[in-house]
Structure formats: structure tokens, C-alpha cells
Amino acid sequence: MTQKITIIGFGTVGQGLCEILAGKKKELLEKYNYRYSIVAVCDPRFGTVYNAAGLDMERVIAELRADQKFTTDRYPWDALETIRNSNADVVCELAFTDLKTGEPAMSHCRTAFETGKHIVTSNKGPAALAYAEMKALAGQHNVDFRIEGTVMSGTPVLNLAEGPLAGCSISAVKGILNGTTNYMLSEMEQGLDYTAALEKAQSLGYAEADPTGDVEGYDARAKVTILANVVLGEKLSIDAVDCTGITALTAADIMAAKAENTRWKLIGSITRSKEGLTAYVRPERVPLTHPLAGIMGATNALTLTTDLLGDVTIVGAGAGKTETGFSILSDLLAIHRTETILPDNRL
Ligand SMILES: NC(=O)c1ccc[n+]([C@@H]2O[C@H](COP(=O)([O-])OP(=O)(O)OC[C@H]3O[C@@H](n4cnc5c(N)ncnc54)[C@H](OP(=O)(O)O)[C@@H]3O)[C@@H](O)[C@H]2O)c1
Question: Residue 323 Cα, ligand 1 centroid: separation in angstroms?
């Protein structure tokens, strides 16, 4: 069966996904018997294109690279109409993240589920604000809500907990979940002050022009909320996560920590104990002997505390065009595997 895909939001991740799919088409077919067809792309900048038999993606990409509106197979549809009207099996929701309302992604997800389409997304909004609702609605319509790319991009932390670690009880997770701030702290240890470290992160594309979401810890807080819901199975709301960013840390703080064989890290943590659930994001001084102390630059890392295996630490990319594009591919393949094994029962 050919998996039919609609892409909503054709920015960095959408383009990364298409490059991977095109580059690995033969390998995906030979190794996994995976066939795909991109039937619709919707983006405010380029317009909406749809072809039930599959778009000519070489043309779509060429027009995008020429920074011009799509010319062929055009439809006057917005994102919701595209999701509703396309014949896709899976909608890749890759529009911007809004951590206050979750929109427009939340409406994109609801519309996909209500019209019998799976969602694969790296957008943190729906998962951080309404995971339980999204999962339940998907389940009611016998489709999936897959969100690997929302935490540590393609580094497979959510699929690790769901797959290889199934059977273990996970009581805590703790890690470095924001690459921008980890990069800045690494640079500050090399002698830059906060402002210079931020400017360098912005010049390299690690930090946005408005860095608030990263430096105040809000991005990491969304990821902690997602981990609590997905990995620990807790119904934790984003407002219940204590959150402090790195804006108050000075070069002197960084050097004082170094002198005592410790290192400041922006830590996201969730612990389940007899007393209840504790979840926070805050800068912590980590001993240099701790595995998280060695994670430098834009890299992310997460330690999962399990009952059967002790601590398991996964280290990898937290962002990037190819890395996050891969997270979408891995979820598309997971849906393909499920449907291949259980063709009459989509979940
Ligand atoms: N890039 C990463 O490394 C990374 C990592 C993890 C998670 N994510 C998440 O993945 C998602 C996509 O990221 P990205 O880097 O690809 O963002 P991006 O480059 O900004 O692309 C988002 C695209 O969505 C379009 N868009 C905006 N509103 C839309 C709507 N209502 N309907 C359809 N398309 C719409 C945007 O168009 P305009 O530009 O015209 O507004 C833009 O082309 C985001 O939610 C992001 O937080 C990204």
C-alpha cells in the first residue's frame, strides 16, 4: 500500500522531510517495503497544491527554491480545507508552534482525526497543551497521533520509551532539552558573557531573533510536559511545571561553578515518588562526573530512570532540518509498520 501524505507548513522541517524521502526512496522501498506519495502541500507563502495521484515534488521543490508561488495543481484551500479535502492517510503538521493556544496546529490535528487521518508532528503545541485530548480523539477515529519530533528532534526518546523500554516502569526523566541554552552556557564557559553568547547563538541560527522561548525555559517546559504525559503517563499540565530560565546566570556564576568542578546546565526534570510528581525546568550545577555535564554545544540528552534497567541515557541532536525531518520519517514508518502488521485494525 502506498502511504499518502499531506504536508501542512512547508518550512525547514517539511523541506527536510521531502529531501530525505526523495533521497531514500529506493532504500525505503527495498528495506521496509515503504511506498509513499505526497498528495498535498499547504503553506501560506507558496499556496496549496493537491493531486490525488501524487504531486510532482521535483516541480514543487524547484518552485520553492526559486521562491515563487506554486503553479501547478493549485487549489484555493487553507490548511483546514486541505486536510479535509485531500485523500491523505497521514497529515504531517509542520506549522509554527504556539505554546499559549496551540493554534492553528490544534485545529489541524482535530480536523485530521475527524476525517480519519493520522497526525505526525514536531509541533509542541498540541502535545504540550492537550496530549490527552489529542490521543483520545485520534483513538476514537482509529488513527494515530505521533509526536517523536516534539522532544529532541529525531533522537528517539519517545519511541524508545514506547518501544524498546516497554515493560519497564519509568519513574523519572532528567536532561538537557534545549540546545540553544546549552550552546550558550558552553560558550559562556569559554569566556563569553551572556549577551555575547546569545548573539553568537543567533548568528549561527541556534537562537531566534526573539529568544524568550529558549532562554526563559518555556521550550524546555513544553518538552517536560510532553515527557510527563507520554513517558510517565501522567496528566501534567504545562502550568504545573516550575520554570526558571538562564537569563540570571552571569559569566561569574559560570566561572565559580567551574572552579568547584561543576557546570551549570538548564535541566528539565520529572520525578514520580510516594509524595507525588515533581516537575521543573531550572539551571542546576551538575558535578563534572555526572553524564549530563559532558553534554556541550547544541546537543540534547535525557536520562530515563527505569525499574528493570536502571538509568538509561540517550544523547543526540535536539533540532535541525535533517534531524527533525528524520523524526517525521520515523513516525511515518511506524504507522506503515503497524498497518502492514495489522491491515484490518489501524491501531
Ligand atoms: N526546525 C527544527 O529544528 C525543529 C525542531 C523541533 C521541532 N520543530 C517544530 O516543527 C515545526 C516546524 O518547524 P520549522 O522549523 O519547519 O518551522 P518553519 O521553518 O517556520 O516552517 C513553518 C512553516 O509553516 C507555515 N505556516 C504558518 N502558518 C501556517 C498555517 N496556518 N497553515 C500552513 N502552514 C503554515 C509557515 O509559513 P510562513 O513562514 O509564511 O508563516 C512556514 O513556512 C514547528 O512547530 C517547530 O516548533 C522544529
Answer: 15
Residues with CB under 6 A from ligand 1: 8-14, 42-45, 79, 94-97, 104, 122-124, 149, 153, 319-320, 324
Spell out the domains of the chain, with CATH numbers in brackets: 2-154+322-341 (3.40.50.720), 161-316 (3.30.360.10)
User: What is the whole-number distance in angstroms between the Cα of residue 250 and the centre of ligand 1?
Assistant: 32
Query: What's the CA gap between 74 and 82, in Å, rounded?
Result: 11
Predicted local confidence at residue 340, as pLDDT: 81
223 is catalytic: yes
Mutate to test the pocket of ligand 1, among 94, 153, 322 (most ligand atoms within 8 A of CB): 94
Distance CA 138, CA 157 (A): 21
In this prediction the pTM is 0.96
Do residues 82 and 38 lie in contact, with contact meaning Cβ atoms separated by under 8 Å? no
Lay out the sheet containing 47-50: strands in order across: 74-75, 47-50, 35-43, 2-8, 90-93, 118-121, 145-146
Q: Are 176 and 266 in contact (CB under 8 A)?
A: yes
Judged against a pLDDT cut of 70, whether residue 347 lies above it is answered with no
Encode pLDDT of 47-86 as tens digits. 999 999 999 999 999 999 999 999 999 999 999 999 999 9
Distance 182 CA to ligand 1 centre (A): 23
Closest CA to 193 of 234, 146, 114, 247: 247
Closest-lying ligand 1 atom to the alpha carbon of residue 319: 3
pLDDT higher than 70, residue 344: no
**CA separation for the pair 119, 90 (Å, rounded):** 6
Residues 117, 124, 223, 265: which is the catalytic one?
A: 223
What tens digit of pLDDT does each residue of 175-216 get? Answer: 999 999 999 999 999 999 999 999 999 999 899 899 999 999
- Report the separation in Å between the CA atom of 241 and the middle of ligand 1, taken as the mean of its atom positions: 25
Statement: residue 87 has pLDDT above 80 = yes
In this model, does residue 249 exceed pLDDT 80? yes
Nearest to 321 by CA among 13, 64, 10, 93: 13
| Angstrom distance (rounded) from CA 286 to CA 267 | 9
